[in-house]
User: Fold this.
Amino acid sequence: MDLAATVAALVAEARRANERRILVLAGDRDRGLDATQDVLEVLDDLTATVVTTREGRGDRVRPDDAARLLGVTREAVVVDAHEGFTANVLGRVVGAVDGGGLLVLVTPPLDDWPARRTDTDERLAVPPFTVEDVTGHFRRRLVETLREHPGVAVVDVDHWTLERDGLTDPPPARSRTPTAVPDAAAFPPAAYEACLTADQVDAVAALERLRERGVAVVVEADRGRGKSAAAGLAAGSLAAEGRDVLVTAPAYRNAEAVFDHAADLLSTLGESSHDEEAHVLSLGEGRVRYLDPAAAVDSPEEPDAVIVDEAAALPVDRLATFVEGSDPPATAFVTTVHGYEGTGRGFEVRFRDRLAADGCEAVDVRLDDPVRYAAGDPVEVWAFRALLLDARPAVDPLLAGTTPADATYRTLSPDALLDDEHLLREAFGLLVLAHYRTEPDDLARLLDAPNLLARALTVDGHVAAVALLAREGGLRESLRTEMYEGARVRGNMLPDVLTSQLRDLRAGVPVGYRVLRIATHHAVRSRGFGSRLLEGCHDEFDDEVDWFGVGYGATPRLVRFWRRNGYRTVHCSTTRNAASGEYSAVMLRPTSRAGRDLRERHGRRFRRRMRDACSDALRDLDPDVARAVLGATATGHSPRLTDHEWRVVAAAADGPGLYDAAPGAFRELALAHLTAPDADLSAREERLLVRKSLQGHTWERVAADLDYVSTRECMRSLGDAYRPLLDRYGGEIADEERRRYETTE
Assistant:
């Protein structure tokens, strides 16, 4: 076999069609890597990057650093799949190959690869499971796609034979039509002249609406369509007008393409400056600056426009903060529809609902024409299938109008999913739709991880709801001791939190299932499918484990859902998730004596901890979230006040007493009510208890936050709120004090 001739033919065809091709070098690792040197010599005029754990010459990137290839292009990328290879690595690098280029995969023998144990399998073998418990289903499916899809050449380097030549005989690439500046364009002509496709021109024209406050522009595209370039050209155009443009994304690397195109345009338009360390571009009075999502939301400087790149990788609640208020800045939400960076389908459904509910004017634009390679590129088609980047749930009409009574509870075993591509795509598509950070690795975990189980509700064979359960706990004593002393134990999130953070050496003994994900089809949301699915899981496993648990970004709606299904709060994180901006709640539902002991132990500690945490690390916790997580504890908090403190509270509620004379007493009573809220208080009064009594904000801050007309009214309202609490908890001492202030007719 002549490898050089095979490579030359592949690349010649790819260049002629402006498409990409894949070359698989299967067999011994050393032979495969040696063969890549021959390949790269044939491609000596191409820019190439090798992703491998091996040291060597040329541009080499370790698999753990493969994210460096997001947003960049190479004419050839070599991926060593023998070590450090994951689905995420493949998802990160495949989009970096330019039209006319080559993706080279150096793999074990394809027949053997699924059954081989790898370092990736070791990461999936979370305690108490071992690497022998990990399956190779993901690799089996990957091998099948490599052997079936057009544009994939396979070379057996052990026997030096060509299994597939990868040639497809495509028509020549069509030449691009030059772009034109739209009539009456507000942005500089240079911005439009930099566009490569008519789609990009349309996107830049739509982004001119960012000159108007309160407008939301939604830009969607698959990877490689130039959406970030369009956003960068718009950002540079706005800055050239003297505007302040704030760019945010999950990480700066996600927004780097925006800055590169903005910088190029600004340098064309005038004498610009670029502070690379601070991520700020300037031209005259205008600027383009980057902040991470949390800092962008809290920034004291009000921008003229906001650009959120890779918006689908952020949760809807975080995105909504950019368009809230009476006069929000114009905001562009730029997102990948199918790709490693985010789950655009979920963004499309969930965020558009939110924009409509908020009454925000939305301008939509979509880019379909690839910029870096021809439409229908076989490598893109292969990647979509291999990593399920385009997986979608069942179409709405198939499930519309159904109820939980119509559904069947069923097991989604890896074998069943592999044997039914339609079922796999619907189940994974629903998980993608429901969660903002689903990655290709999640597909590998679904198919291979021994600690994961998938369950679903189906209606006429279509997936209406799906849940992922992760088995945790049941850890040996030595491992629990290591965890207690600070070691991280993979795949045991709840025991880890309860052991290492909350100092419970026994927390890893009971066995439980953590609900890792639960997703309900959009067409049947809020109809009880999620609760029905949880009920099925509980019925199936209650006799096998000690607890069910969950950890998630807390919102009042989600806390209510989990509480309705029997879960109770045992922890609230003291730091916000960097991407979602939310504090996390941990909740448990016991199924055995050991589970009940675990929940009661941590429920008591949680209530005591919240008494002080709310005035410290959780001072900015949303009062409705605080009300929800405290109200979802298993039992109430019994207030402990001295006789003097009872008199102070009673005097403040019914007489001339002052809150500041005993704030701890008010905090005790507030905590007692919020953990068992059966006194007759309004939601506003409960927010007042949180803001003033638990979080200790100033009267001025509380009055402003809760829309009281004055601090005096706020003070009176707090006294009014404590009267029902005195009725419920106050004893003889409090009653005696209150009688002093009774008026007689």
In short: The radius of gyration is 29 Å. The chain has a mean pLDDT of 91.
